[in-house]
Amino acid sequence: MKLPVGAGVALLSLALCGSAWAGSKPDANDDGKITVSELQAKRAESMMKADSDHDGRISKAEFGVMVQKRTARTGQPPKGDPDKAFQRMDINGDGFITRAELDQQTAQRFAKLDAGHAGFITVDQLHRPAPAAAKPRRRKANPATEVGGAPQD
């Protein structure tokens, strides 16, 4: 199955967060429902472990170390390009990933997974790829309806 680039990067970033929340679970209150705030908290908790200098943001070097540690721990190479994942996660392009950027991306992914707008997702939904955004259909040009209409004889 071929995934769109955005979905691949999202899967890589979720995988880098610690092998599907290794040792913790995103449903903090065990009600079977994962809210956006629960998901944001768990993702930030996992990702911010990479912040080795404790400045509140993840540099590209820190991200690279996180990828290397995960690869060593799991024996699996990343499922996507870590450089592209970092660029996508660094929303403002300043060379760092902040908690605010993680929260924004997590909220966007949550919205895609919560297609029914229930305000929560399940663990099963979390572990499946988010639906790809529908591509707008392009209309074929019709000279008769274009500005100026069809050529006159």
Supply database-style keywords.
153 residues; two-stranded antiparallel ribbon; Recoverin, domain 1; 4% strand; globular; disordered N terminus; 43% helix; mainly alpha
Element order: H for helix, E for strand: HHEHHEHH
Report low-confidence residues grouped into runs of 5 or more: 1-23
Q: Strand order, biggest sheet?
A: 1-2
List the domain count as a whole number: 1
Strand content: under 5%
CATH top level is Mainly Alpha
* Mean pLDDT, all residues: 79
Distance between the termini: 52 Å
Level of helix content? 40-55%
Q: Radius of gyration from the CA trace?
A: 20 Å
Write up what this structure looks like.
This protein is mainly alpha-helical. The chain starts with a helix and ends in a 27-residue tail after the last helix. The chain is globular, with a radius of gyration of 20 Å. It has helices at 5-16, 36-47, 60-74, 82-89, 99-113, 123-126, and strands spanning 57-59, 96-98. Helix content is 43%, strand content 4%. It has one domain (5-20, 30-126): Recoverin, domain 1, CATH 1.10.238.10. It has a two-stranded antiparallel sheet.
What's this, in brief?
With 153 residues, the protein is mainly alpha-helical.
Secondary structure blueprint with pairings:
Layout: H1 5-16, H2 36-47, E1 57-59, H3 60-74, H4 82-89, E2 96-98, H5 99-113, H6 123-126
Antiparallel strand pairs: 1-2
Helix pairs in contact: 1-4, 2-5
